[in-house]
Structure prediction request, 354 residues.
Amino acid sequence: MNKVVRIVLFIVITIVIVGLILYPKLRPEETGAQVSAQQESSILPVEAVVIQPRRIENIIKITGAIIANESVALKSEISGKIEKIYFQEGQRVKKGDLLLEINDEEMVAQVERLKYTQKLNEDMEFRQRQLLEKEAISREEYDIALTTLNTTQSDIKEREARLAKHKIYAPFNGIIGLRHVSEGSYISPADLVANMYNINPIKIEFSVPGKYSTVVNKGDTINFTTEASEDEFTGTIYAVEPRIDPTTRTLLIRAICRNDEEVLIPGQFANINYILDVLPAAMMVPSESIIPELNSHKVYTFRNGLVDQAEISIGLRTENEVQITKGVDPGDTVITTGILQVRQGMPVNITNIN
Prediction:
């Protein structure tokens, strides 16, 4: 190899070495962009929600039963043969209407006999009193005559009271149900004549968990529907049981509702919405964004491109959301997905904000 060839090879090798050394420095922008793209593709994508205070109704959904305003099982206080029935099945009656009469001939005869005896004893007492005034008899003899008269009068009152039990009267305005006896049949106090109901207004009976006992008040409003109608009805709480059931740990409540059309009848099943409270500016977040801890709760927020951890206090819970009462402010961005992967100070990529 001559001298010229060696010089050419030396120059070529030198150029290659210098090029390898200088190549990375000659394309700094392209290399940095590739690194940046790789870093961006490794950032965790998450979704988030921006907290906006809004009006929330604290509603509990419960079930209850429709019951009559007044109801009674009509029964006789005495035994005897039914003489006359004065009502029809399903008939509307007023308080005091005569409904049924039991044969009372024997009792009427006893009252008449006692009234004759009463007249005789009254004459006897009158004569004895005159003799006493003339001191013709002792005080003891007069007292015997007076006692005999008083006893007869008491017997008459007793028989008249028993005589009144031979008739059954309507105890209130209402509707008579189906009849279970017939004229001429013999009944006893154990036999049911019919049921009677007053269904306007109607009552709704339901129970709520005992933890709500401090927020339940007379006058509160409930909304409810029944399986028989798509209409929504409104009732007002008028009575609360003053104790919590030790077995179910619930509080028994009754509400009342007008029933002019009588579409609500006793025994129906009621689906009730009870508004316990109204929060005018509640900060609500999806329940999946809440992280429970030993004695508290926390959420992850998004600040300046990085994850930030916030310890919070919670309040009302709905089906899908939880109220935050302390720890975040309106306008904060709370991360709702990727909760198990994110960490304090970690960069994330928000792909969707609700």
